[in-house]
Amino acid sequence: MSLQQALIGFRFQVDFHEQMLGDKGKGEALPLCRGAFSECSGLEASMEPKVIREGGRNWGVVQRMGPVSFATVILKCGLTRSDDLWAWFSLVGEGAYAHRLKVTITQFDAAGLGLFSWALVNALPVKFKAPDLNASGKEVAIEELHLAHEGLERLDKPLITKLGGGQ
User: How far apart are CA 108 and CA 117, in angstroms?
Assistant: First the structure.
């Protein structure tokens, strides 16, 4: 991979779309909310290998694919007056467990043009962390939202074509 092909990792945008449990989410609607986050981590999937031991096979074992699991995605952003993230977490925590969102993270190039998007299917907030408060600190107050989800997809066509905008 040449240096020109490498992408910078700090130009991204996160969109939250309505998706009720059982909804395939194929039709794209306007996002419920859109955010600029300072950090997004946990975009990963892994397969647990299954080991099969065969009688008479003394040189190694047979490896088969096991179930795929997805990491918890952590979004961090500077604290604002908006309570959208807390409202979703609180809604689910009070019993609306079927209120899932499709979360898309769009990667942009240096010019702000959308390259591709990652989609989290049936995302569910599992942890909300308010910022640490310190009277002697000078750092920006950062809040976190942890998301469990049922699938990670890479969309070759970006959901958002221009940073801060839509299609």
Answer: 9
Q: pLDDT tens, 60-109?
A: 889 999 999 999 999 998 877 778 888 889 999 998 888 889 999 998 88
Contact 93, 124 (CB under 8 A): no
H helix or E strand, kind and range, residue 40: strand 39-41
Side chain identity at residue 19, one-letter code = Q
Taking the C-alpha atoms of residue 84 and residue 157, their distance in angstroms, rounded to an integer, is 27
**pLDDT digits over 25-73, tens only?**
554 555 677 777 889 999 999 999 999 888 888 888 899 999 999 999 9
Per-domain residue ranges of the chain: 12-155
Which CATH class, in words, describes the domain spanning 12-155? mainly beta
Q: Is 77 helix (H, G, I), strand (E, B) or coil?
A: strand
